[in-house]
Amino acid sequence: MKTFDENYRLLEDMYQDGYFPDFLVDKINTLVQNVITFLESGERDIEKIQKKFDEMTIAINDLQEEFEENDSEIETGARESIGDTIAYILQWFDIDLDVEDAIGEREW
Fold this sequence. Notes:
Layout: H1 12-16, H2 22-40, H3 46-61, H4 64-69, H5 76-92, H6 99-102
Helix pairs in contact: 2-3
């Protein structure tokens, strides 16, 4: 079982941009961490992995209203930060899944 890169800061660009409230980025971070924990278990079944990414993405979709209530939104900067983080995770765990497929359920 491979553990995730402890030196990689998830969603770094979102945390550095004051437009995104940290407490909401923390919620996305928790969702991403859940996927990482799943992958650290050694799961290699691509369908199960995709399902886990789908669950994460749908949960992020559900945060859109809360972002809007806090004068923010999941927009270009957030999409890029989330996409970069997911791409790194896929590469780190050597998962043959395109980032666009991994977050294919996104509404942002």
